[in-house]
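Justification of resources, computational component.

The compute hours requested in this renewal are based largely on the per-chain cost of generating structure records like the one below. Each record pairs the submitted sequence with a full structure-token output. That output is archived, and it is also reused by downstream analysis tasks.
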Amino acid sequence: MRSGLIYLAVPIAFFFGPSALHGQPRVQLTLAEAQRLAIQNNPSFTAAKYNAAAAYQVAPQYRAAYEPNLSGAFTSVGADNGSRLAAGGLNNPIVYSRVGSGLMVGQMITDFGRTSNLIGMAKLQAAAQDQVTETTRAQILLNTSRAYFAVLRTQAVLKVAVQTVAARQTVTDQVTALAENKLKSSLDVSFANVNLADAKLLLVQAQSDLKAAEADLATAMGLPNESGFVLEEEPMPPPMPDQVDGLIRDAMQNRPELKGLRLQHSAAERFTKAEHALYYPSVGVIGTAGFVPTGYATIPGRYGAVGMNVSIPILNGGLFKARQTEAELKAKAAAENVNDLQNLVTRDVRVAWLNATTAYDRMALTRQLLEQAKISLDLAQTRYDLGLGNIVELSTAQLNVTSAQIADASALYEYQTQRILVDYQTGVLH
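The structure output for this chain reads:
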């Protein structure tokens, strides 16, 4: 029969997979291997590491202010004889036609803490960027784990669909044979064919869902061209604790987003101190020396000078005051951002804990539901075979078993997925 041929083709595609049918090896994976591949291949994690490395180059930029600055100069001048410079730096005040070359060196002595606070701010911001990298890593692991269990779940549902098609094909064949012998009505045949068609629709949808889940997993691992996976089952995680308070405490300590915002808050406070230091003087030493191979014979061919500069801010139109106020307000905003995220994390942990607890309870309930549905199907089949029941009763029992099998197959992987989410929300997924 045509429907029988469809049934025979399904288990071949399921147990060996489309890749095997075309001579392509299927990829065997554990969850740990999938996570490793995802971290290794995901471009967003690589970009986060580059950003973190770049952030560590900011502190040396500020620290350079503590080091001597050395530069060279070559000057050629044509001037009116006798001209004089009355003000300026350590230049020769006499302006005359000449060609000269020399070196200039400058060394900051102190700026009363501004540079040190800028360096501290940069280090804290770099450490905060490290937490962004950890957040990206955790998100990648979460997405990969979800996709991994989604593939396992859809494979289990597909297996249920295959078994459902086989079971309903058997019933259809039996009812058709009985109808041909005038022992059952054509209505029974119609109901049986409807149930078989519904099972085949379930099978087609399960096959599509499996392909989509495998595509999600391949993308999460950075291997978008891979298809067809043989995944190992993961050990069942233990049940959730009775109280959520411990999980919330773990989240407050471990969540990288919270660590990053706290570091950003500390960096904002250091920047506030750096902006306040603008009110203080800055002290530095400068020196210069060189040769004048072409010039007036009465002027020495060598020159050199050294001096100290003290820059004292007096009036700047309120610029420094505005900058310090801006920095203080941003530091206060950073503190409120930490408080806001703590509230959100508390909520997310509670929701994840409730969902995981519910998923754990559903495993036992779905198993009971499946056992009762199978008993009902056996009774309905017996009643139908004895002529005591009708095809509607049998069809309903078959639908109940199918639904219970899908719920039971999904409950296990739903709990594992929710446990991974709990690990993510508490900051221990790494």
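The first helix runs from residue 2 to 21. Strands lie at 27-29, 69-77, 83-84, 94-95, 98-110, 229-231, 282-294, 302-311.
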